[in-house]
Write a structure and sequence with these properties.
- There is one protein chain.
- The protein is α+β, with helices and mostly antiparallel strands and about 240 residues long.
- It has two domains: about 10-95, no CATH class; about 100-235.
- About 50% of the residues lie in helices and about 15% in strands.
- The protein is built from ten helices and seven strands.
- The protein has helices at about 5-10, 35-45, 60-70, 110-125, 155-175, 175-180, 180-200, 205-210, 215-220, 225-240, and strands spanning about 15-20, 25-30, 80-85, 90-95, 100, 135-140, 140-145.
- The strands form two sheets. It has a four-stranded antiparallel beta sheet, with helices on one face. It has a three-stranded antiparallel beta sheet with strand order 5-6-7, with helices on one face.
- A hairpin with a 2-residue loop joins strand 1 (about 15-20) and strand 2 (about 25-30).
- Helix 8 (about 205-210) packs across helix 10 (about 225-240).
- The longest helix has 18 residues, at about 155-175.
- The model is unreliable at about 10-15 (pLDDT under 50).
């Protein structure tokens, strides 16, 4: 596997393990894992100054958020079935989703569906908080979300803009070398944003939020150069 910052952080923050029972694969997720907590301290380093998103660190609170989303967010992507929730030991067992982890090299149709799925989430009142690309798996054009432990049913444009920002940051860090072909990366951004605006009727307000001073600072900090400027330019085209 080609190592980059996203791969390293994912490796350090694994909370889940795959088990096989009677030939069937399941995922066991342990929210109380100390190594699992690491990812939230990392994410918050770039978020704490402005308090943009209301992250939760407590294992049981993260479990509650994920269970609520997986069971109630009917218009948000495809989701794995929850088979067991153990609030005492702070664990869940869910079905294993077989597919490809979303990345820069995904087909344009998948970039569009990812954007549309996120827009539909926001349209229905849900925001995700953690939209790093490894939280999404696709089968053909079907996009699944497999990690939603920071999701809340409290939509506002700032939370939604944070979701788009984290997605862009991790997508372009993972595919940075290829993304330097700005013609191709421009197309990727366009497919994501077109899908997003199709899914979220309030999408223009979210894109306007991205050009506020706080979000501009985060965009230039978290999305690698020159893709941060390209993303801002493409978003601006939809606002005009």
């Amino acid at each position: 596997m080609k190592l980059n910052l996203v791969n390293v952080l994912d490796t350090l923050s694994k909370q889940s393990r795959l088990v096989v029972v009677d030939g069937k694969m399941y995922v066991v997720k342990d929210y109380a894992s100390e190594i699992g907590l690491l990812k939230w301290y990392i994410v918050t380093l770039s978020n704490i100054a402005m308090g943009i998103y209301p992250f939760k660190f407590e294992p049981v609170e993260r479990l509650k958020r994920e269970v609520s989303f997986m069971r109630r967010a009917f218009k948000c992507f495809h989701r794995p079935e929850l088979l067991l929730v153990d609030y005492g030991r702070v664990k869940i067992v869910r079905e294993f989703v077989k597919g490809k982890v979303y990345n820069y090299n995904a087909p344009c149709s998948v970039h569009f569906e990812l954007g549309r799925g996120m827009g539909s989430c926001h349209e229905s009142g849900w925001v995700l908080g953690d939209t790093k690309i490894s939280n999404f798996v696709y089968q053909g054009d079907r996009v699944y979300i497999v990690d939603a432990e920071q999701a809340i049913n409290e939509y506002n444009p700032e939370y939604a803009a944070w979701d788009l920002l984290v997605l862009a940051s991790t997508l372009f860090m993972e595919g940075y070398v290829k993304a330097l072909n700005t013609d191709m990366s421009g197309r990727v951004i366009e497919f994501i944003l077109k899908g997003y605006l199709e899914g979220n009727g309030d999408g223009i307000n979210v894109l306007k939020t991205l050009r506020t001073s706080d979000f501009k600072a985060l965009l230039y900090l978290l999305v690698p150069f020159p893709l941060n400027y390209l993303f801002a330019k493409k978003a601006e085209e939809y606002i005009k």
